[in-house]
Every structure is written in structure tokens, then in C-alpha cells.
Amino acid sequence: MLVISACTFSVSALAAKPIVHDGEYYFVEAQYRDQWAAQDKTIDKKLAQLREANGGQRPNILYVLIDDVSFGQMGKPALNDVMGISTPRINDFARQGMSLNRMYTEPSCTPTRAALLTGRHPVRTGIKEVKVALVGEGLASNEVTIAEVLKKAGYNTAHIGKWHQGDIEEAFPHNQGFDYAAFPAHQQVQLALMSPESAKANNMLGWWHGTQNGEMALDMKFKPSGLVTGLEARSGGLAREVDLKPGEVWTQAHYERMNERYQRQTLEQLGDLAGKDEPFFLQYWPLYPLNFVHNGEAQSRNGGFMADKLEVLDAWFGEILDEVDKLGIADNTLVVFMADNGLMYHYEGTSGMSQLIYRGGKTNHLEGGVRVDAYARWPGAIAEDSKAADIVHVSDLFTTFARIAQADKYIPRDRVIDGVDQTALLLEGEKNGRRDWVYIYENEILKSIVKQEWKMHLPTPGMPAAAAGVYNIYRDPREQHPLIGHSLWSGASFQDMAKRHGMTIAKYPHNKLGKGKPYEGIENLRPESLETVETFMSWH
Amino acid sequence: MLVISACTFSVSALAAKPIVHDGEYYFVEAQYRDQWAAQDKTIDKKLAQLREANGGQRPNILYVLIDDVSFGQMGKPALNDVMGISTPRINDFARQGMSLNRMYTEPSCTPTRAALLTGRHPVRTGIKEVKVALVGEGLASNEVTIAEVLKKAGYNTAHIGKWHQGDIEEAFPHNQGFDYAAFPAHQQVQLALMSPESAKANNMLGWWHGTQNGEMALDMKFKPSGLVTGLEARSGGLAREVDLKPGEVWTQAHYERMNERYQRQTLEQLGDLAGKDEPFFLQYWPLYPLNFVHNGEAQSRNGGFMADKLEVLDAWFGEILDEVDKLGIADNTLVVFMADNGLMYHYEGTSGMSQLIYRGGKTNHLEGGVRVDAYARWPGAIAEDSKAADIVHVSDLFTTFARIAQADKYIPRDRVIDGVDQTALLLEGEKNGRRDWVYIYENEILKSIVKQEWKMHLPTPGMPAAAAGVYNIYRDPREQHPLIGHSLWSGASFQDMAKRHGMTIAKYPHNKLGKGKPYEGIENLRPESLETVETFMSWH
């Protein structure tokens, strides 16, 4: 009988079980249980009214994720002027909805994207930053992505642009819930730095053979080569490389064409998806503003090679918004626009991008690594020209998108979901957020805990806990003045938070990263890619 | 005949002579002469139309100058959230007019205020930072202030709040063109730090006798004491101290009452001035947010003792705007709201204010010292919700106010006026500014030159000019990465700028600071103040 009962374990039975959250959530929820339950009823009514107003249709979700741009660099006119750039379309968009002024991400591309996709801190999925060369790893097939959740609930799904979740077949977007995907197999180190033009622009000197004679080298595979470039695929099908012919050299021109293609494909997908009966979930994750070659014709006052592309991107985002208008779907589309982590500060100066308010950038647990510009627009649902100082973590979008799409019953109940439902914040406004904390990892190491305006940089192994710096990030946004004296009261509270988090992990151990042979499921591998895979497999 | 001619030197003869500018102005003007001359005709027509629309009346000018607040800390909602403060009234006001996103001031209170008052770099007037104790110095009577210029043109004038232009009679505001003035004789070191409460709050430990027994001290005048507090006066009359009785101790309560009084007096003046036939020039220079005592009841999320007062100030500024509306003068009043220099970063942490985007603060030539939030509202004249990335220097307001008030003919022609007329920028919008440079002094030392997005930290004595750091402040707002290599082309250009400035000084030598006996012209000096003056005079 028990076995039969297990076999008939149905979606509705799943729905009856609550989502499993991190310990910290329960600690806070216990203080607001009745209030939140009552508010949830209001929210459900509002969502029903919104559907009613849109012919019974649930909203489309368009999610635009920008690469490596720090808080303040997009959508804030005064800070445009600080940098000598101009992002008028993003600025306008920001005013049409809610500015999420305390959006936290993970500190790097792969982890942030994994957190959005799974609603989980990447450490739980085994995901770390995916390196540029072959790794034979990626997002495991048993992770449940937001695309899978929404697809189960009847959404059409598509992904265009950067993906960066690994080079194995199971990790590819069309195998992770997206009906259609156009994406590069890797990331911009390959696509924007590993080119002859970039070498001539003084980047990664010595990587390109033309800038190094290499006459004492034996290993010709030490420098990554033969990598797959752009792929396209449909769910259940094989992927096809579309950018490079056998023997062809990847250049800056290829990179620019690839970027233009993703923009064009996003517009095309938008048209296709808007024409269907079901609502859609469309992800556009551009590769710009990452760019390392100045083409000699300044776009922006700033003129840096990333700053210029940020202006290009602004116009492109405008084009997309215009298309949304033209298609008549603006009113029933939630558009979320944000960056994935702080700037690539290794190129400060020439890139034109710099640390602004927060210290640090990509790869750092400092605020500069994990605080980004984020805006959400949904006319009639989210108040125009509003803002929220509530803490939000990128994983919250997983849970919130699912709730808004009436898909929350498809969120798995057998694992921890870090994403908190922030629908109340979007619909009811500032001070209706349901999180006042964030755990910040660098790969598998928990580096910081944020609670309200305090942030503890956790002690490194062997360091006495009392020496751990606590920062008040309202008063010290650059995290330069540890308040050892002022915050002695907080040590135990932070330790308790670490414990609650650790106990949750003990109860729900981490998943394993997906492993496999790189590039399986690509139907037209070039000979040089086949050779690269073979060399890779020689020691696996 | 020559003598007679000199004697009959009239206002209209004065007007025929052009204003004397710094060499750099002429260098730029030569490139735009015809364009600017043509635009000036358009501007004159626009100003005439504006007067016509307001019954022939020239606009009132309300100038609110805030003390020691860095760029980004007022009027920018996203940055409110960064700091955990809320300045809704300033934010709203900012949207009603133009954000001057590249407003430069001098790096400290006295110099910035002197630059506004005279339209000249303070070095030309002999003005440096005025210290807290007696100095027997101040703004010379032969300097011509904006109040004198506007008064000659028929404006009624009033000054309320911080003044900080010296402790001698000729330097007091009622002797510098203001019909009415209510102002403290000194500044907030006396008013907000030299109190028993501030000592108990761990500030200036040892100054207050209760926190130091001083039993080996002979000199009881080493610590400033017996200073005059708040004064009130009318033009041509004597000043009267209004806050303290003989023998009374100055406390935090006195400071708070003084602040409240200035706010009240500003509202009163506004009512009085609005009731008159002539237009008015009203300056309100609050003492808040400077404050060093936390009263135990947090106002802001930030909670710092200055952050809290910034929120108080926001509400007060709102009250003033409401009064402007109530009086029905909003449409014909140019309101300019800005800070005088960067934050007092010596109190980062406990004050709640911190360096945000720019490095440094009060006293520094770094952008953090001289870049401030600045907003100008003039309905019908300045476009709503506009911004300008053009460089503006605080001295430009002198010239611009005069132009707008049809008072430019009263600007003296016998001295250098650094202030550039920025009326075109206000009326015609961004990219109509007439300055792309700023000279930055720390007291009498020229420390930096800004031109467009480049800034040279001038070589210190003995340093080879080629070692002087040039910074691109769009790409490196914190001035941390000198572009020695990238900017070698600019060395000669910056040297030429320094030369043009130096040649102007050679032709028009600096004026002398006013000197005199402190506190003359005060009718009710307390015995302790009399004694303090006597001791001061013992070595003069």
C-alpha cells in the first residue's frame, strides 16, 4: 500500500507540502506568520484580478540579465553623468516600474545564473564558476530550473544569449526546460578576449600566437583552443554550432556578429512567443557590455570599450521594449532587467567601467561584487516610479516568477529553495519584502552574511570569531571600517545565522555537479573541437 | 579732464565694459564667440518673456546651501537606499528642475561661500578657511557680493543661517549687502562640538573641562571660550547676540534651538519678502546636518547623528517649498539647493555619512571634496526633470543670478570674476554650459586643474611635472589610477592652463583679506566675550 501511495504521488499532493526553505527563513517567518498568510490571500486575489484584466492569461515574463555591471552603472541618470555615459532607455524603463535598490546576486556569472535558474544557492547544486576551457561539468539534469517549472505550468520558454552553465549536454538550456535556445557554449574570455584583435589591444598578451613565438613550448593545449562557439537547439534535439566553419579563426568581428544575432533572435522570439496562446518566459542574457577591443569610433563620452557597449546595449534594450509595445503585450508582461554581478574590475580604466559606490567587483563577496542595478516593470501590478530598499536575492526571482505564473506547485519539495517569494514586495511595494538577510558565497566558501544593514566578513579558518569584521553598510558602503567595538552584540547573532544555515545543509545535503563528456549532443562538431575533446579525455 | 571723467564714471559706463574673466575663459570663448553672442540674444528675449509672464517682475532667488554633504547624499533615491536615509522632499524638488550633476565647489565652507558671494575664487579675496576661535579677519568690505549687486538692482536681500566669513564687522552679512541677517558669528565646531553633550558623546575629548582636569595648565585661553553665538542685524545697524546670556553655558539644546530658529526665521523672511513690491534674494544656509550628538531617538534607518539631521533638514526644506507655494511665488522664484563641499569624513561611521562615489571630503581637492548635489528649479524657465553633465562652478551662480536679475551691470569690472554666466545652461539645457574647466584650490595653493574629464593633481614643489598624476574622472572617479602613460599628451595643455591662470593673477593681483578687531559692531557683547577679545588683542 505504501508503495502504491508513493507511485501515485501526484502534483497536487506535492503542492500540499510546503516549499523547503533555509533555516533563516523559518526564523524570520515565525515572527510574521499570520501577517504573511493574510497578505498572501490579498496577493492571490490581486493576481487573479490581473489575470482577469488580461483575458484570463497569466503574465509573460521577460528576463534580461546583463553581464558584469556594478550597482549604479545602469538606469540612474546622475550616475550616468558620473561615468560619462548615457543609458536613457534603461533610465526610462527604471521609472516605469520598481527599482530594487538592494538586489543581491552571487559574485560571479555562473553562480548568479544558477541561482536564478534553480532558486538555490549554487553551492547546493555543486555549481561554481565555470572556467573558459573544457571542464566536462555543468548544471545537473536533476536540478529543476525556473524554465522547467514554468513549462510544466504551460509556459512557452526560450533562452537567448550567455548561458555559462557548463559544457556537457545535460547542462545545455534546451535540456534544462527551454523550448528553444541560442547560446554560446562558453563565455566571453573565449569570445571577446581570445581573438587577434584583442591581443593587439594589449589584452591577454601572449595568448595569441602572433604575440608570442612559443618556441620552447611542448604542450600546444595549454592555451585553450578548438572551443565550440555559438549553439542553437530545440528542446529534445541536438545542438548545432552556427558561428564558425572548420579551420576558421574567431575574431572580434565574429563576436560583434554574435551579439547582433542574439539581439535579432530575441526580437524574433518575442514575436513568435507573443503570437502563441500560452504565456511565455523569455530570457535574454546579452554578452555585451563585455568587450575588450575599441573600434576607434567612440560611442560614449566615457569612450571605454565596455562603456561604449553599454550604450549599444541600452539602445538594444530600447528596441526590445519598443517591440513589446508594438506586439501589444506590455501590459501583461513582467520585464525584469538587472546585472549578474559587479564589474570586471581587472579592466578598470580602459574598459571605462569602475567601482562606483561599492568596493570590489566580480568574484568578490564585497558589496561591489554582489550589488547590482535591478528593475521590474509590470504595468498595473507594480507601481510606476517606485523603489524598494528591501533586500532581495536573485534566487527570489525563481520563487516569485513561479508564484506569479501560478506554477509554484511545480517547485520541488525535496530540496532547499533559497528563493523567497517576493510577490508581496512587487505588488504591495516597499517594506513588504520577506527577507532581511543574504548568505554570500565565493564558490563553496561562505564568505559573508548580510543581515539588515550589518554584514559580517566571516572569520577565515583559525581566526578567532571575535576578530571577524562587522560592517554597517549604510554607514560604510565600502566595507573599510570594521566595527569590532560597535558591533560586539552581533557576534552571537551572526554565529546563530551560520548555524541555522549549516543545520539546513546537514538536513538537505548538497547535490552533485553534473559530469560528462564535453560537447556531447552537438551534431556538427568541428575537427578542431573533436581533437580538443579527445585531448581533454586523455586524462579523464 | 581725465580726473573729471573718472569722477563721473557711471553705472552705464561700467556696463559698457565687459566683465573681466580668467584667462581660461577667453581661451574657450575665442572658440565660441559668435555662437554665444547669438545665443545671448535668444536668452535676453527669453528672460524678457519670463518677466512679462510675471507682471514685469524679475524672479526672486532663494538659495539654500547645505553644509558638508557629499555628491549623492541628497536628492537621489537610489543613493538614499545605499545610505539608509530618506530625503523625499529634496528628491521631489530635484525632479521639478535641473540636476546639475557636475557642480564644483571649493573644498571647504568659507571658500565656497566666499566664491558664491563674490563670484571669485576665494584666493583672489584673501579668504581661506576661517578658524573656530577669534581671527580678527574676514571678507573685505571692498569685495562686491551678490547681495550688493542684486540690492543695487532693486532686490530686497536677506541672509539666514551659517555665514562663516570672519568675525570682524565689515565681514558680517548686514555689512555685505543683506538688508537683514540672522547668523552665528562662527561655525559648528563651536556650536555643535564645543558642548558638554558632545564631549560625553566621545567628541573632541578633553576640550570640555568636565572631561579633563587640566591641573598643570597655565593658559586658560588655549581652548576657545567666550565666543559670540548667534547674531541678528539689519543693514547699517549694529548686531545683537540673541542666544546666550552672560555666564550661560552653550549646550546641545541651544544648538537645536538655534537651528529651529533659523528655519522659522527663513519662513518669516519668505513671507515678509514675498509681500513687497520688489523681487527678493533670500539665502538660507542651515547649520544642519552638522550635528555630533545622538539624541537616542533614531530618525533614519541609518541612525547616524548627521544622517538623522539630514532627514530633519529634508522635512524643513519641504516646509519652505510649501511656503513658497502658499505664498503663490513658486512660478517666479528660482530656487537653488546645493551643498557647499564634501562630507566631514573625519566622522565617518558614527555620523552616518560616508564617502560614496568620490574619494575624500571637506578640505580636499579630490572630487569628494568639491563635487556636490545641486538642483535648480524655476518653473517655466528651467525644464522640469532635466539634468546637465556640464561643468558648473559655484562662482558661476554669482554671474548667473546677476544676469537673471538684470543686475549684471553692477558686477564690478575692476577685478577678475571667475563666475561664468550659465544662464544658457539653465534655460537652454544640457550642453549649453560655458565652462569645461575648474581650478581647484586648497586655501592659497592651486592643487588641481579639471578640464573636461581629465584632472591633473598638480606637482608639489620640486616634483617633475611629468610625474604629476592625470586622472580620467569618468573612468576613475576615485582618482586612484594616475594615467601617466595614457595622458602624456595632456601635460603641456595643463601647463598652459596653469599659465593662463597665473598671467591673469599677475595682471589683477589678489585683494587683501579684511582685518580688524573681532566683534566690533556687536551691541551687547557678554563680559566673557569682551574678555576673550581683550586677551586676543594682547598680542595683536
Name the strands of the widest sheet of chain A in spatial order: 8-7-6-5-9-1-10-12-2-13
The biggest sheet of chain A, with number of strands, parallel, antiparallel or mixed sense and barrel status, is: 10 strands, mixed
Number of domains of chain A: 2
CATH fold-level label of the largest domain in chain A = Alkaline Phosphatase, subunit A
Shape annotation of chain A: globular
Helix content of chain A: 25-40%
Q: Which two chains have the most extensive interface, and how many residues on each?
A: A-B, 41 and 42 residues
Q: Report the C-alpha radius of gyration of chain A, rounded.
A: 23 Å
Going by CATH, the homologous superfamily of the largest domain in chain A would be Alkaline Phosphatase, subunit A
Helix and strand content put the structural class of chain A at alpha/beta
Overall mean confidence score, pLDDT of chain A: 94
Give the termini distance of chain A in whole angstroms: 45 Å
Number of helices of chain A: 16
Describe the structure.
Chains A, B: InterPro entries: Alkaline_phosphatase_core_sf, Sulfatase, Sulfatase_CS, Sulfatase_N. Chains A, B: Keywords: Calcium, Hydrolase, Metal-binding, Signal. Chains A, B: It comes from Candidatus Litorirhabdus singularis. The structure is a homodimer of 540-residue chains. With 540 residues, chain A is α/β, with parallel strands linked by helices. Chain A has two domains: 23-207 and 222-239 and 247-441 and 510-537, Alkaline Phosphatase, subunit A; 453-507. Chain A is 33% helix and 14% strand. Chain A is built from 16 helices and 19 strands. In chain A, strands 8-7-6-5-9-1-10-12-2-13 form a ten-stranded mixed β-sheet, sandwiched between helices. A four-stranded antiparallel β-sheet of chain A has the order 15-16-17-18, covered by helices on one side. In chain A, helix 10 packs parallel to helix 11 (305-326). The longest helix of chain A has 31 residues, at 23-53. The model of chain A is unreliable at 1-14 (pLDDT under 50). The interface between A and B is large, with 41 and 42 residues.
